[in-house]
Amino acid sequence: MVYTESNLNSLLLFSGEFLQAAPKKKPRWTPLEIGLLTIVSLLFVIIVALILLFITQSGKSKCMRFSVLLSN
């Protein structure tokens, strides 16, 4: 079959009508995406907690060092 410009236009029009007629589905989260998001969120919380713990502990150790120096 020889495709002419009018045949291609009608073919494109038909395919466009077919795509528009198809019902759109809501994009849903797959279980893989939910699992990865959960893991990344938990790792973020753990990293923030470790940073806060490090900041608070490093402040205490400086104070303890200073108090040990004063007591001598």
What is the structural class? mainly alpha
Question: If you compute it from the alpha carbons, what radius of gyration comes out, rounded to the nearest whole angstrom?
Answer: 32 Å
What is the helical fraction, as a range of percent?
over 70%
Largest sheet: none
- How widely separated are the two ends? 100 Å
Number of DSSP E strands: 0
Number of helices: 2
Share of residues in strands: under 5%
Which stretches are low in confidence, meaning pLDDT under 50 for 5 or more residues running?
none
Shape category: rod-shaped
Order of helices and strands: HH
**What do the pLDDT scores average to?**
74
Explain this structure to me?
With 72 residues, this protein is an all-alpha fold. It has a domain at 29-72. It contains two helices and no strands. The protein has helices at residues 5-21, 31-71.
Topology:
Layout: H1 5-21, H2 31-71
List keywords for this structure.
rod-shaped, mainly alpha, 81% helix, 72 residues
Quick summary:
The chain is an all-alpha fold and 72 residues long.
